[in-house]
Amino acid sequence: MRAESLKFLKQIVDTPSPSGYEERAAEVYRAYTRPLADEVRTDVHGNVAAILNPKAKMKVMLAGHMDEIGFIVHHVGDDGMLYFSAIGGHDSVIPVGQRVWVHGKKKVAGVIGRKAIHLLEEDEKKKKPELKDLWIDIGAATKAEADEVVSLGDVATFQYEFQTLLGDRATARGFDNKMGSFIVAEALRLLKADGGLDPGVGVYAVATVQEEIGLRGARTAAYGIAPQTGLAVDVNHAVDYPGVSKTRYGQLDVGKGPSVMRGANANPIVFKMILDAAKEDEIPYQVDVAPGGTGTDANAMQLNMGGMATGLLGVALRYMHTPCEVLSLTDVEDCAKLMAAYCRRVRPDTDFTPRIS
Ligand SMILES: [Zn+2]
User: Fold this and answer.
1) Which residues are known catalytic residues?
2) Ligand 1 centre distance from Cα of residue 177 (Å)
3) N or C: lower Cβ tally within 10 Å for the chain?
4) Please, which residues have CB less than 5 A from ligand 1, an ion?
5) Per-residue pLDDT tens for 43-89?
6) So where's the catalytic machinery, residue-wise (predicted)?
């Protein structure tokens, strides 16, 4: 991966951005895309769109959400402990014993505490802990001490940062889905650097907000832009580790190329155009099947206004919604290439109406 691109990827995944608190990641996204785009716009919801050919009538929206899961402080105890709610979907076995950053008046270190194993009752030992039974300990001895640095509604994220593993693999907190924001920005960069985009086609590379809590940013972004077609990109469950069934979930391997979704949430013409692009440009891909609406920005996009011809790309990821998500950096790069290749095939008069041909 190009050094400047890798730097941007590290920077955006390491920047805390729980849903509703994406401003810091938005700043990173704007700084990277400003020199690449003809125009960069931020809407009132917080979505950031980097645009090529903003005057074109045919519009393509690319969406990669820049929010991540996290925690929000809802109560400060008299003992100085912080009690929190989940932002997005957490497996409650994960937070126990982790270090966090609380993003208060300053960045405050804390740990997520639970009763020690020796003090658990017999029945408690058999049950998985629930988030309501956990707290954040920042070392404050009193509520007054905690109040000096933390306010109600401050958010917290795990203390994990981007790290490369063997081969082309990497791990981070928040690949879901800041690697998606990275991919839409890279697709824009490739279109600008390598050309091939029809001058009558505008591309809107959007880092969306609040996906993890109900696809909320893609909805307002799509409405504001009113594109005829678009691709969302998100992490996708790798089915290549022990205990997950291929007969139940289908096959999806880390390192075998981006996934292209087929099913009701994908316009069939868009799906075919993506596959043609992958074959012609020799980009590896894996087909992923979704029988109905997906839990991704593609769902909100497809249902925008009178409908948007939507496609969904994915990157196979292990351990989703944990602080040690694992993916292949080559898959990430190939996904950006595939996204750019799709944009190059859109014409001002492309007809996306499903039909037998
Ligand atoms: Zn997610």
Assistant:
1) 211
2) 7
3) C
4) 176
5) 999 999 999 999 999 999 999 999 999 999 999 999 999 999 999 99
6) 211
Average pLDDT over the chain, rounded to whole? Answer: 97
DSSP state of 94: S
Alpha helices in 15-79, H assignment, sequence order: 23-33
Q: At what angle do helices 329-345 and 175-194 cross, to 10 degrees?
A: 50
Strands 259-263 and 286-290: parallel
Residue pair 317/332 in contact (Cβ under 8 Å)? The answer is: no
Q: Identify the band that residue 127 occupies on the pLDDT scale cut at 50, 70 and 90.
A: very high
Q: Token pair for residue 332?
A: 């990430």
Q: What are the chain's domains?
A: 3-68+173-345 (3.40.630.10), 70-158 (2.40.30.40)
pTM across the whole model: 0.97
Please report the pLDDT score of residue 38 as a whole number.
98
**Is 243 a residue whose pLDDT tops 80?**
yes
Q: Which residue in this structure is represented by tokens 């925008």?
A: 304
Distance (Å, whole) CA 319 – CA 12? 19
The one-letter amino acid code at 30 reads R
Q: How far apart are CA 287 and CA 251, in angstroms?
A: 9
**pLDDT of 357:** 73
Distance 238 CA to ligand 1 centre (A): 14
49 membership: H or E segment, kind and range: strand 48-52
Nearby residues of 233 by Cβ (< 8 Å), 6 or more positions away: 62, 63, 64, 177, 180, 183, 184, 258, 312, 313, 314, 315, 335, 339
The alpha carbon of 90 and the centre of ligand 1 are apart by a number of angstroms equal to 10
Task: State yes or no: 176 annotated in a binding site.
Answer: yes
For 20-24, which contacts have Cβ atoms below 8 Å and span 24 or more sequence positions? 20/67, 20/87, 20/155, 20/209, 20/210, 20/213, 21/67, 21/70, 21/103, 21/155, 22/46, 22/66, 22/67, 22/207, 22/209, 22/210
Burial 265-288 (b: 16+ CB within 10 A, else e): bbbbbbbebbbebbeeeebebbeb
Residue 59 φ then ψ, to 5°: -120, 135
82 SS3 class: strand
